[in-house]
Specification:
The structure is a single chain. The protein is α+β, with helices and mostly antiparallel strands and 281 residues long. It has two domains: 84 residues, Multidrug-efflux Transporter Regulator, Chain: A, Domain 2, CATH 1.10.1660; 145 residues, Multidrug-efflux Transporter 1 Regulator Bmrr, Chain A (Alpha-Beta Barrel), CATH 3.20.80. Helix content is 36%, strand content 24%. Strands 5-10-12-11-7-8-6-9 form an eight-stranded antiparallel sheet. The protein has a four-stranded antiparallel sheet with strand order 1-2-4-3. This is GyrI-like domain-containing protein. Keywords: Coiled coil. Pfam families: GyrI-like (PF06445), MerR_1 (PF13411).
Length: 281
């Protein structure tokens, strides 16, 4: 098989097969680079349409393949070529630094995904198909005062609302348990709800921008969430999808809530614990 062609004047051209072998790529890759205008042959045979490359083109191909191996996109490399900056060390350094930053973000995202997967595997292994045992309690009506977040109308999110509320907790009078806070969820129409960060109180005073709610007497199934606050949704999913039904508990429409006491060490503390109260028949 011919791998090198000598034309008149001693000008040696290299076939696509030879160039592909020299650089450890496929001929298909080189044909693709030609089609998109990234790296084209010096000549194309008139009769057989064979792609032929000049030896002095090889350093450029090596740079292109190096930049591709570093994760730079085709368009970024094409721009370097159009601008004549394929040999500009400062420009390439800047592109590589940007790529490195992107990789760091990708690695962080992958590490978070891996941690989530490992946590779910551990969670499923820990449960082993056996649901968490609920504690059933009967609570009398109690009154709370706090700051509300409406899923339909409010801006921001619940964690942000908690921060605003805690900065104003000194304004709430008559706290019955100053070390205990409640996240009260009032069901609305369709999928809407109102969430209230609050304290149980004995008074009628309501600070500006806050609200007062009487939580009616109710029977509850109480579950304990352990770990990060942003994993609370996982526990709720297991409660509603598995744990209630497996223990013969019937869910009723009502106010559910979270109770935060001294066991809650903060939203990002692995050893944090809080109680979840689900209304049942």
């Amino acid at each position: 098989m011919n791998i090198q062609i000598t034309l008149e004047g001693g000008f040696n051209l290299l076939t696509v097969g030879l160039v592909a072998r020299l650089f450890g790529v496929t001929a298909k890759t080189l044909r693709h680079y030609d089609a998109i205008g990234l790296f084209s042959p010096a000549r194309v045979g008139k009769d057989n349409l064979y792609r032929l490359y000049a030896p002095d083109q090889l350093p450029e191909l090596r740079r292109i393949l190096f930049l591709r191996s570093m994760g730079l996109g085709i368009e970024a490399i094409r721009e370097l070529k159009r601008d004549g900056t394929m040999d500009d060390a400062d420009r390439i350094k800047l592109l590589l630094e940007e790529r490195a930053n992107g990789l760091q973000e990708e690695i962080a995202a992958r590490e978070k995904q891996l941690a989530d997967i490992q946590r779910m595997v551990e969670y499923m292994t820990f449960n082993g198909g056996i649901p968490m045992e609920a504690k059933v309690v009967e609570l009398n009506a109690f009154t709370i005062v706090g700051m509300a977040w409406d899923s339909k109308r409010s801006e921001g999110d619940i964690p942000g609302m908690w921060q605003r509320f805690l900065s104003r907790r000194h304004e709430i009078e008559g706290k019955l348990q100053p070390a205990v806070t409640y996240g009260i969820c009032l069901p609305g129409e369709n999928e809407n709800f109102v969430y209230i960060a609050s304290y149980e109180t004995s008074g009628d005073s309501v600070p500006e921008g806050m609200t007062r709610v009487v939580v009616p007497a109710q029977r509850y199934a109480v579950f304990t969430h352990k770990g990060l606050a942003d994993k609370l949704g996982d526990t709720y999913e297991l409660i509603y999808s598995r744990w209630l039904s497996s223990q013969g508990l019937e869910l009723v429409k009502g106010i559910d809530f979270e109770r935060y006491d001294e066991r809650f060490l903060g939203p990002e503390a692995e050893r944090s614990e809080l109680e979840i109260y689900i209304p049942i028949a």
